[in-house]
Amino acid sequence: MVGIAREVFGDALPVAERYAAFLADAGVERGLIGPREVDRLWERHLINCAVVSEAVPEGAHVVDIGSGAGLPGVVLAIVRPDLRITLLEPLLRRTTFLSECVEMLDLGNVEVRRGRAEDVADDYAVDVATARAVAPLERLATWALPLLRPGGELLALKGERAAVELDEAQPVLKRFGVATTELLQVGRGRVDPPTTLVRVVAGRGGVVERQQRAPRRAKRSRKRSS
């Protein structure tokens, strides 16, 4: 995987290596990464997430929903310094980890925000929302689509059930007035199997646009566990 990692990350490989070491150490110690994942961090996690950059437009503002250990958000920030990344995560212990990670790696294009997507939707109108292993698409769409500008994209990393989830989510996607949906495979020749993405493009009308034009709602205070 060394040659592939060098090809994918280029000059940013040393930063990716520091991130991998942090995941293997503090990430495991704090329960963000399973011990069995350490031996396959590059193949299963870092490179798998890095190739998502093939589908992200240049200069985009990306919100990574339920960022957890920073997959794919931190990886995208490393491999694509042209992107502006918001790592959105509701749990304190995870946002603490992410903040330490961003500082250690000196990622000036990243902001860490503690919160749930449904609570901060009025604050964002971004180009791209990403998510990996967060929720089924029909639920994820209800969180992600209100964060997007009209024409913005949800890029959801999915496995072998991607087509099934996309089919099951059709009623929700129709209600939100999405423009288009498709299945993409990125990273061919670099990861096996290629990374599967569900791309959902927000429409220029319907629920999403009305929510973005609506006055800001008063935020409800919630206690969140660590």
Describe it.
The chain has ten helices and seven strands. It is of the alpha/beta class. The chain has a single domain, classed as Rossmann fold (3-Layer(aba) Sandwich), CATH 3.40.50. Strands 3-2-1-4-5-7-6 form a seven-stranded mixed β-sheet, with helices on both faces. The chain is globular. The model is unreliable at 206-226 (pLDDT under 50). InterPro entries: rRNA_ssu_MeTfrase_G, SAM-dependent_MTases_sf.
Give structural attributes.
Rossmann fold, seven-stranded mixed β-sheet, disordered C terminus, alpha/beta, 226 residues, 10 helices, 7 strands
Outline the biggest β-sheet.
7 strands, mixed
Poorly predicted ranges (pLDDT <50, ≥5 residues)? Answer: 206-226
Per CATH, the architecture is 3-Layer(aba) Sandwich
CATH superfamily: Vaccinia Virus protein VP39
Rounded radius of gyration (Å): 17 Å
- Domain count, please report it: 1
Structural class: alpha/beta
